[in-house]
Task: inverse folding
């Protein structure tokens, strides 16, 4: 198939070509020769070099920092419904290969750039689907996408979300709406590695639950068997529940949110777990208090929210991670286990490792890294887009 040559062209600065020849999907205005004219948000456009050589084809946004999102590196590809539906099918097929189609479980079916569908996230919770749009150019194709998901997956209901921060950046309206089927009137139940969880899809962080940590919770639990555990930023209690199920000793779970603690406590009751105590408050203050009182733990889990929302916050974020991990190391007995995580995409794996080394020096402790983990496989990392490798989970032994 030959595509008409009248597709608008956007010219890339030649010194920027390496990134996009490697198939990174985000083209910033600063990477272009001049500002494109006579293009509207959602228009198909080609990225070319100054000599006219084709690089990729994508969708243009006239007022976003990411002015072009690339979806194809084939000059003969038409970005029509069949093109998008093929990409959707490829993503769903991968989850089937990964055995993530358990009707009682939960999985990320489409992971934006990781599945070459920049701007689209689709999660399945049992028989319900939650669709998050993070780019206006993809949201403009919502009717087609939602119709395909409805026919392909046959969900009980579909919810559409547009996060407030994303809405501001992409010139969209925030949204959290059920658009198909019968919405759940009560929390739904899913299973995660044998643990029962109840999720309120009308009142939850992200798209319902932190699915990216699913396998890390399970992997960390084996190191926590028989140990006293401090779970910092516990949210709905995932790490604590996995630890308890694996045979951990007494567990103290902390979170700044009283609502999260309430839900985590309910999960402990639901699973018949009685060795978890729950408390809410500022996690840094709690750790400082424990250090002052010389309290000790045999294992600590750190799973804080994202500290680095932008590059200008990166240094402050690394300082916060340093402080949090240093405090944790001071609280661990010799040979204690530290499970430490970062979901800040701007903090690279090397950054995180370097931070841990600095925190260990400051705490005058030696550190052995037992495992370096990332997100679950339904969050595939695309090497051309380092931003897809946002989650770090290090399982360490503190000497």
Result:
């Amino acid at each position: 198939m030959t595509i008409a040559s009248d597709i608008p062209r956007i010219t890339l600065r030649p010194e920027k070509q390496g990134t996009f020849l490697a198939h990174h999907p985000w083209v910033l205005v600063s990477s272009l020769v001049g500002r494109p004219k006579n293009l509207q948000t959602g228009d198909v456009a080609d990225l070319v070099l100054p000599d006219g050589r084709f690089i990729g084809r994508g969708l243009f946004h006239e007022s976003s920092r990411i002015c072009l999102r690339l979806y194809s590196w084939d000059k003969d590809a038409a970005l029509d419904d069949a093109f998008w539906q093929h990409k959707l099918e490829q993503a769903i097929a991968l989850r089937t290969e990964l055995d993530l189609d358990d009707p009682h479980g939960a999985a990320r079916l489409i992971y934006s750039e990781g599945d070459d569908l920049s701007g689209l996230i689709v999660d399945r919770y049992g028989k319900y689907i939650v669709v998050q749009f993070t780019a206006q150019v993809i949201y403009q194709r919502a009717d087609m996408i939602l119709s395909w998901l409805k026919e392909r997956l046959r969900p009980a209901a579909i919810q559409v979300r547009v996060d407030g921060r994303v809405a501001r950046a992409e010139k969209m309206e925030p949204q959290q709406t059920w658009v198909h089927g019968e919405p759940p009137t009560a929390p739904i139940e899913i299973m995660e590695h044998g643990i029962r969880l109840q999720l309120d899809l009308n009142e939850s962080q992200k798209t319902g639950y932190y699915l990216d940590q699913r396998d890390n919770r399970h992997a960390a639990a084996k190191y926590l068997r028989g140990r006293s555990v401090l779970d910092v930023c516990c949210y709905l209690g995932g790490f604590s529940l996995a630890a308890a199920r694996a045979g951990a000793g007494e567990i103290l779970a902390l979170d700044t949110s009283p609502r999260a603690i309430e839900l985590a406590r309910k999960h402990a009751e639901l699973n018949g777990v009685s060795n978890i105590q729950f408390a809410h408050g500022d996690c840094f203050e709690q750790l400082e208090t424990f250090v002052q009182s010389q309290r000790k733990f045999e294992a600590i889990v750190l799973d804080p929210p994202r500290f680095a929302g932008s590059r200008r916050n990166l240094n402050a974020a690394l300082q916060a991670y340093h402080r949090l991990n240093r405090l944790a190391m001071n609280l661990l007995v010799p040979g204690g286990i530290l499970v430490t995580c970062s979901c800040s995409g701007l903090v690279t794996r090397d950054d995180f490792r370097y931070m841990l080394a600095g925190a260990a020096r400051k705490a005058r402790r030696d550190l052995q890294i037992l495992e370096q983990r990332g997100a679950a496989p339904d969050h595939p990392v695309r090497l051309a887009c380092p931003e897809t490798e946002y989650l770090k989970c290090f399982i360490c032994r503190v000497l």
Summary: The two ends are 63 Å apart (CA to CA).
